Amino acid sequence: PVDIEQRLLAALDAEQRAAVTAPRGPVCVLAGAGTGKTRTITHRIAYLVHRGHVSPGQVLAVTFTARAAGEMRTRLRALGVHGAQARTFHAAALRQLRYFWPRVVGDEPWELVEGSKLRLVGQAAHRVRVATDGETLRDLAGEIEWAKASLVGPDAYAAATAKVHRDTPLPADQVAQVYTAYEELKNKARLLDFGDLLLHTAAALEQHADVAAEFRDRYRCFVVDEYQDVTPLQQRVLDAWLGERDDLTVVGDANQTIYSFAGASPRPLLEFARRFPGAAVVRLERDYRSTPQVVGLANRVIGAARDRPAGSRLRLVGQRADGPEPQFAEFDDEPAEAAAVARRIRELLDAGVPASQIAVLFRVNAQSEVYEQALSEAGIPYLVRGGERFFARPEVRQAVAALRAAASAPPEGDLPESVRAVLAGQGLTAEPPAGGAARERWESLLALVELAEELAGTLDGADLSRYVAELEMRADAQHPPTVEGVTLASLHAAKGLEWDAVFLVGLVEGTLPIQHADGDDAAIEEERRLLYVGATRARVYLWLSWALSRSAGGRRHRRRSRFLYGLIPEDHPAARPTARLRDGGAAKNGNRRCWVCGDQLVGAAALKLDRCPSCPSDVDEELLARLKSWRSERARQLKVPPYVVFTDATLVAIAERRPSDTS
Ligand code: ATP
Ligand code: MG
Q: Where are the coiled-coil regions (predicted)?
């Protein structure tokens, strides 16, 4: 054990080691992306286990996605820890509820509603005579999720939303009525949504002393990754798990809070030391993931954030060798952008970068379509993460149906083998087909076998029916199993992960930041953090691109994201005047100029704000002063009156090519 211990500690720096070897009790690691927070908690678990402070079975580690949980289990196994639980909050709660259910509710099992949730919300709306369409239904479902995650019941809903000035999809009293009806219908049909899994778990522990005693005897050491995105509901579950104890290790980065739209808040992370005055608090600043070039860009993205809470103003210091500068690229339209990304990926593959080390990240899942197409055309294998796509594929749906049918027969022998046997009838041949659609189908089926292997490795005695339940839960939670290929994922799904090469695409106004964040400072800041999360996923190679039009040959009316301001090197071709400069309509506005960038103002919104809607409203004084002095200085050099002088990049363009444009 001594050399295992030495090996564990040798893989850490001094601050990480302090967190790993802190005595049992509260520990908090506050640190930026790539500093080794996740590494620190896996090593801490291994250290406590090897030291004999806890047994693996007494450890409960929670993370945010099924993939992250799987990765943590893999890392733990590699450190010689077998049988520790690493799960999402929901998976942990589901497992506990299954066990406690007969005691706290009764013998009858309830089912998960998630697949038919929208229909239920629709019925609820109909019942209370609230008119809706498809989009409003989705908003209502999201709103009910937010309320439950925020521990806000139907009666408190109107007051709670008024207090935080929350935009509600319908008037608050109507939402509350739908929410009430939804809960009634759901409970009557004996259904549970994801929020209920957590609520029932907390309630079981809070209200049943025997359940709590048994649970607390079983689990003694709690670890939470990505704690900056904990919701009040999850915190309540965590508190119920802990009881009076304080054996809790949390790690997080307030700059990576990206779920506040869903009720999450970094406050418990930032106030951890106040809540547990004896806590060991560790800060990490060395970034082990990314090259100094990537770290530099990430620092600039987050450095521009407003209102960063104390405790989140850490600067990352890159530890790796130099790498290529981040690459910026502008395209006329999205298909051209996607084709260029596919070409660049092909180059990386040819240079020996494995496909599994490449990711294309976007803001909304709908963006994946054009990349799926471009990659298919280029013959590059890919997988879509965090999307329902995997479970929506016809071959997967058929396979799950076949597995379900097989599960009703008595369950026999090794789980992965039984799954393989069922899937053989669905086209899972021993050797993969050469390529094309047949190969893709085969890969999907193989992924189901891999999932069975994962389950068999983590859950003793897992049988076919348990496996089918897991598949259904994942289909609901939209976590596809792993297959090899270039990853296509939303920025939200990419949290905590890393790749050698990362493509951040679709960086235009209206997409990142997303349209509905416009005008809402807090929402804009969350969008900025999303870009920070995305950029910090890259180890070596980072690409940022945008397209001025959606479809090929379409009108080029889009503008690149405001967050790129200050990131694009000034000598880059993309840092040229924007379309607005060439827009004859500008003259109508009497040549009023943006107080930030100096460009002509176009459109009513810009005139009202006195700046381009895409220009930051929070340029710091220093930058503004620099801009102004550049402007007058360059104006002198160019012998033009100061009002024709725009941004520095624009100036270069004017000086080089087109003095007549400025008349
Ligand atoms: P995020 O905020 O994105 O979740 P994180 O802080 O959890 O990041 P990790 O994923 O734990 O960071 O670590 C980032 C990378 O740096 C990993 O590849 C990890 O193995 C490596 N790493 C962490 N600590 C060290 C170290 N002391 N020496 C060498 N490599 C390290
Ligand atoms: Mg992490």
A: none
Cα 32 from Cα 15, distance rounded (Å): 13
**Alpha-carbon distances of 100 from 85, 149, 210, 464, rounded to whole Å:** 18, 22, 10, 22
State ipTM: 0.99
| Residue keyed to tokens 């620190």 | 40
33 lines ligand 1 (CB under 6 A): yes
- Predicted TM-score (pTM) of the model is 0.76
Separation CA 634–CA 650 (nearest Å): 11
What does residue 372 show for φ and ψ, rounded to 5 degrees?
-60, -45
Write out the CATH class of domain 2-95+198-281: alpha beta
Distance 497 CA to ligand 1 centre (A): 10
Residue 657 has pLDDT above 70, yes or no: no
For ligand 1, pick from 37, 39, 44 the residue to mutate: most ligand atoms within 8 Å of CB: 39
pLDDT tens profile 433-467: 765 566 667 777 887 887 787 777 767 778 888 88
> What residues pack around ion ligand 2 (CB closer than 5 A)?
37-38, 496
Size (the chain), residues? 663
CB of 290 shorter than 6 A to ligand 1: no
Q: Which CATH architecture has domain 318-387+486-563?
A: 3-Layer(aba) Sandwich (3.40)
Q: What is the domain partition of the chain in residue ranges?
A: 2-95+198-281, 114-188, 318-387+486-563, 389-477, 576-662
Q: 283-314, pLDDT tens digit by residue?
A: 998 999 999 999 999 998 988 787 666 666 66
CATH number given to 114-188: 1.10.10
